[in-house]
Amino acid sequence: MATKQQLLQAVDENQDQLLTLLDRLISFETTSPPARNTIAIQKFIVEQLATAGFETKQTPFYQGDELVSGQKAGSDPERYHSLLLNGHVDVATIDRDSWDTDPFKLTRQGDVLLGRGVSDMKGGMASFLYVFSLLHQLGIELPGDLRFQSVVGEEAGEAGTKTLLKNGETADFAVVGDTSNMNFQGQGGVITGWITLKSPHIYHDGNRAAMISTGGGLEAANMIEKMVVVIQALEKLERYWGITKHYPGFAPGIDTINPAYIEGGLHPAYIPSEAKLWITVHFYPDENVDDITKAVEEQVIAAAKADPWLRDNLPTFSWGGDSLLADKGEVFPSLELDSDHPGMQTLEQSYTEVAGHAPTISMSPSVSDSGWFGYYHIPAVDFGPGTMEQAHSDNESLSFQQLLEYTRVIAAFIFDWCHLKGDQ
After folding, report:
1. What average pLDDT score do residues 173-181 get?
2. Where would I find the Peptidase M20 dimerisation domain in this sequence (predicted)?
3. Which of 46, 105, 122, 383 has its CA at 20 to 30 Å from residue 161's CA atom?
């Protein structure tokens, strides 16, 4: 059987295979929105996994999308560690006119690779599939199970990874290969919510004078105007959090409350009898969704009770959801890193061996599916090629040398971790 050094040598010697894989992945137009366009790329990935000796399973998702799981069974899985690698195949939407190259064709300009998804995150997916292929070509048999998830929906807050983990897929350690610029990253959490104000009555616009004039006599309110009370309450809570909360690895004030979208009213002939505010709330890794949503609700309700009309018509709340597209809601749980976990320590050793220096351990300023592993109590880390500046950008790019180094690290880690006994 080939050694780890022979595997790393093969990574370097067969670079064209890596680029061919990445070019093929990019050629699938899997933008989200509109989404519902991943059946073809998932079929291609299933074929790649099967060729590399993986058993595969496809899980129905939304119409036009599906989830893929794979496993290369270890020779002694009871005694050796299992590993799960996770990535998403959906990519951010594009404006073709703003690109200098074809976004769905890999273009190489020296060390720079261009194409939609090279950084977020088809570069990482290509690395995984490339290493799987090399393991098979070299006849490397791993004692521990090697598992893989190709999911859909990360770009629109859809529950692809959540679905597979909820179904019981697990491992001793997981790596989410999303954009982290080669850093080992945890993340804070994010949840969206709707705050609704609703009047018990609908009034014609002609009644406005009676609502706002002294002595008018009509006890009524404009819900769009009353939403100002809610927004001001959120601003006060956001400032208070920024002053009083902190977490290592995050700049102060990262726990924000963003009033992102508002809708209300019928048309100009009516007083708006209903208004809805869509908010996005970020929180730290040591906080949970229930406590955060409770704090927001208490702040808004207190402000509403101080208003003479709202106190009798209190706002209502709706939190989270499984899709920004389907039900206008999302949740990304937080992920705390456990630096003492054997998986983190082994990954750090593999990284240092390949790169010649220790990795940077930090917290992501964004969110990815890595938080779902923390939610289901699976030790995990977000570790991938590409920079946040390039994710979702026009002319999205990635350093080829970084992609190659990432691939070496992943290859070394797969070999090291799946050869490590479970009690180590």
Report:
1. 98
2. 220-306
3. 105
Q: Quote the CA–CA distance of 382 and 124 in Å, as a whole number.
A: 11
| Encoded amino acid at 140, one letter | I
Burial class (CB in 10 A: 0-12, 13-18, 19+), 100: exposed
Distance CA 122, CA 120 (A): 6
Alpha helices in 312-366 (DSSP H): 342-355
Going along the chain from its start, the domains and CATH numbers come out as 4-187+335-418 (3.40.630.10), 189-319 (3.30.70.360)
pLDDT band at 158 (very low <50, low <70, confident <90, very high): very high
Task: Indicate the pTM of the whole model.
Answer: 0.93
Across 374-383, average pLDDT: 97
Taking 80 as the threshold, does the pLDDT of residue 423 lie above it? no
CA gap 372, 377 in Å, rounded: 9
Residues, the chain? 424
Contacts of 388 (CB under 8 A, 6+ apart): 179, 181, 364, 365, 366
